[in-house]
Amino acid sequence: xxxxxxxxxxxxxxxxxxxxxxxxxxxxxxxxxxxxxxxxxxxxxxxxxxxxxxxxxxxxxxxxxxxxxxxxxxxxxxxxxxxxxxxxxxxxxxxxxxxxxxxxxxxxxxxxxxxxxxxxxxxxxxxxxxxxxxxxxxxxxxxxxxxxxxxxxxxxxxxxxxxxxxxxxxxxxxxxxxxxxxxxxxxxxxxxxxxxxxxxxxxxxxxxxxxxxxxxxxxxxxxxxxxxxxxxxxxxxxxxxxxxxxxxxxxxxxxxxxxxx
Length: 261
Known about the structure:
Elements: H1 10-14, E1 17-23, E2 30-37, E3 46-48, E4 55-59, E5 66-70, E6 77-79, E7 86-92, H2 98-101, E8 112-114, H3 122-131, H4 135-149, H5 158-169, H6 176-183, H7 187-198, H8 202-220, H9 226-233, H10 238-249, H11 253-257
Antiparallel strand pairs: 1-2, 2-7, 3-6, 4-5, 4-7, 5-8
Helix pairs in contact: 3-4, 5-8, 8-9, 9-10
InterPro entries: AraC_XylS_family_regulators, DUF6597, HTH_AraC
Pfam families: DUF6597 (PF20240), HTH_18 (PF12833)
Domain HTH araC/xylS-type: 157-259
C-alpha cells in the first residue's frame, strides 16, 4: 500500500555525490535505504531536517567503520560527515523503529547514539555491511539483521499507527483535539503515547509532515511562487512558510534548492 508520507533528508542527496537510494518494503517498517559519499573538497556540514523518524547510518569506509542511531532533529541541524568516506543508511517510517531498538524513541530525538549502545552485537553487523561489495548486498544484510531482531516483536501500537496515518493523510493540517475526538482518547494520552513511540509530540509531527510535503512540492515544481507554495502546503502565508523553512532547513525555499549555497 502506498504511504501518504515518505520521510526524506533532501540535503543528503543535494549536498553529496554518488547518492543512490531504494525504497524498502513498507510492511516491515523500513522506508528507504540510501548511500552517499561526502566530497573531499567539501568544507560544509550537511543539514539534517526534521523528518519524525529514525535512521541507522553506517560509515562504511575509513579506518574506523561505525554505526549510529540518528533520531529525528527538531530543527535544522548541521551534521558533520567525514570527507571522502562512504555512508550507508536505513530509514524507518515514523513509529516503527521501536520494534528494532526496543526502547522509547524519544530517547533518540536530537541524538546520535552508537548502535552498539543499543544492540550489543552491532560490531559484527557493521563489519559485514562495510565489506559488502554492492549497495544491494548491504540492503540484504541489513534486512536479515532487521528480520531477526523483530522476529519476537510485540507489535507496533495500532493506535499510534492510526494517528500517524490520519496526520499523514491530512498532510499535517489537523488539530490534536480532532484526533482525540476521533479516537475517544484524551489529548494527554495521545501525546504521551505518541512521544514514546514516535519520539515527538503529534503536534510537532504534524508540522514536520507539512514541511516535508512542502519541500517535496518545491523540488518537483520549482516554478511555484511562495504564495502558491504556502497555500498548497497549508501555511498561513508566505512569511510563515519562509520562517518554517529557516527553522527546519536553515535556508529559505530558494536557497534550499541550491543546497543552501
